[in-house]
Amino acid sequence: MLYRWAFSLLTLVVLLSVVSAAIAQEKLRLAWAGFSPTNSPIWVMEDRKLLQKQGVTPEIIAINASPTVLQALLANEIEAASISVTTLTSSRLAGADTVMIFGVVPTFVDHIVSLSSVTAVEQLKGKTAGVNRLGSTSDLGLRLALKKLGIDPDKDVKIIPTGGTAERFAALSKGITQFTIIPEPFLTQAEKLGFRNLWWNGILSRESIVKAKRPLMLKLVRAMVEAIHIIKTEKEYAKGLFKKNLGVSDPEGLERAYKDYNNAFPEIPYPYPDGVKTMLDDLAPKNPKAAAADPKTYVDMSLVAELDKSGFIKQLYKK
């Protein structure tokens, strides 16, 4: 009898150990593209170990361009990615099951920067612009911005791939390009160098991943919400992360970057379909699939809704 109890107790201990180990070994692979404050919630999440606090071991990877991040997502090499709505729409129209589960920046915060000799928007016509890579976030973002300014990106200007922010600066300085698109705090640097300022993003996953790993994705959403709260309430810490990750030390640029992104980051980050509709409308004249697409199918608001209904966000902001 004593032997049975001892054996049963040992079995229970082993089972509990296996369950605990499984929980402790829960992993999440997340990639982000683009060195800008847009991705600062991920930096906070990593620095403050917000996923580890929920029993998740994260593998956070920085990749140079959105198309590469998308390839990793579609190959199931990662569970989630911080990339733009432009990547979401292009991939989904091509047949992928990509879906936005979290809205990080619901507005366009980058700026078009040109040589000082370009004093008006219409003077951009006939000029050459530099972007990271053709088809990347910077490329599609620039094209959308130019259209809103009345400039046809296919006919009025030439767009070439020149690399990341530093490389785009270099191309501008050497006269290889005459304008580009960049976010704060790099805009302040550009202005000080004599360049002129003339003038969205979220967490993507796949429907199949959200369905198979919903509890894990909910933990990611929770950590991202907490990270945004930290940025909004710990200004100097946030600016310090900007400085560390972007290699920018200019106080004015960091202050302006914090102001831009603090205002842009939403407290309750629902991935509303409005921004998707904007991009689909832009693509519709050339792509019949875009014209017929329903933007509501491009987003999954259920994860943020579940967290919102739990009271976690209100408690965080003490509302």
Plain-language structure description:
It is a single chain. The N and C termini lie far apart (57 Å). It is built from 15 helices and 10 strands. Strands 2-1-3-10-4 form a 5-stranded mixed beta sheet, sandwiched between helices. The chain has a 5-stranded mixed beta sheet with strand order 7-6-8-5-9, with helices on both faces. It folds into 2 domains: 22-107 and 201-316, D-Maltodextrin-Binding Protein, domain 2 (3-Layer(aba) Sandwich); 111-197, D-Maltodextrin-Binding Protein, domain 2 (3-Layer(aba) Sandwich), CATH 3.40.190. The model is unreliable at 2-23 (pLDDT under 50). Helix 2 (40-47) packs across helix 9. Strand 6, helix 5 (137-148) and strand 7 (158-161) form a beta-alpha-beta unit. 49% of the residues lie in helices and 17% in strands. It has helices at 2-24, 40-47, 66-74, 85-93, 137-148, 165-173, 186-192, 207-212, 214-233, 235-246, 251-264, 274-283, 288-292, 302-309, 312-316, and strands at 26-33, 56-63, 80-84, 98-105, 111-114, 128-131, 158-161, 179-182, 196-197, 201-206. By secondary structure, it is an alpha/beta fold.
Task: Map the helices and strands.
Layout: H1 2-24, E1 26-33, H2 40-47, E2 56-63, H3 66-74, E3 80-84, H4 85-93, E4 98-105, E5 111-114, E6 128-131, H5 137-148, E7 158-161, H6 165-173, E8 179-182, H7 186-192, E9 196-197, E10 201-206, H8 207-212, H9 214-233, H10 235-246, H11 251-264, H12 274-283, H13 288-292, H14 302-309, H15 312-316
Parallel strand pairs: 1-2, 1-3, 6-7, 6-8
Antiparallel strand pairs: 3-10, 4-10, 5-8, 5-9
Helix pairs in contact: 2-9, 4-12, 9-14, 10-11
